[in-house]
Amidohydrolase (Candidatus Nesterenkonia stercoripullorum), 90 residues
Amino acid sequence: PSWVMNALGGIPSTIDPTIEVAGKTVSGTMIDLLLRPEVLERATQEFHQQKACHGAEPMLPADFAPPIHLPWPDYISGPHGTRDWLSTPQ
């Protein structure tokens, strides 16, 4: 669908406003939590209540080794196109 291209396609006119609004939302929430301790207390209580009711175990095993040797994309245009890899898979 076309919304995917707008959301993920790297179009600054669609991405930049989203990032700006998200930043305002997060910063406004942080200011509320700092200036209104009763809101922070209610949020903390709700978090603990939800965690007690719907606690989640870690989805990965404790001995899981993260895949740190995956190739990393380089989105700068180069002689081989616009999506070169900075490393090779091991």
In short: Residues 12-35 form the longest helix (24 residues). The CA atoms of residues 41 and 72 lie 41 Å apart.
